[in-house]
């Protein structure tokens, strides 16, 4: 029989409490309802929700975390950590909004363990999409967020040159 991984703060047993992330990317207190040792999964019940919302997770899923983090965050405290799990500058696979994993570089690790990562392929994908639409004379609309910290790692002159030559942007737009 397979055994669950040793994850700090999470006991893999029926009735154990933890925090789980739902499909809408919100974290909720939850309870382990069942364990499937063959498929290496746990059935999670989101507390105060109907059982129809129960969900199976791989037991090594990043969408499961210890429950203590909720109460510690409310009190402004941080959990005891021996060594940080992630280090600034480390290359990792990060989940993008399309729920796919892309190579990324960790820019910052917050005290509560949350990460700020730069997904380079995502930026390249957007530029590629805009270039294709521009070449096809299609109208494209791009909504930009303030990502100054992410762009600190980009050579601005190269970015401006590419926007001028590939997309044709110039003047006040840049």
From TrEMBL:
Q: What is its main location?
A: nucleus
Any one Gene Ontology BP term: regulation of DNA-templated transcription
What's in the keyword line of the UniProt record? Nucleus, Repeat
The record's annotation in InterPro entries points to:
Mbt, PHF20-like
GO cellular-component term (any): nucleoplasm
Q: Which positions are tagged coiled coil?
A: none
Q: Name one Pfam family in it.
A: MBT
Location in the cell reads: Nucleus
Q: Can you say what this protein is called? A: Reverse transcriptase domain-containing protein
Which source organism? Oryzias latipes (Japanese rice fish)
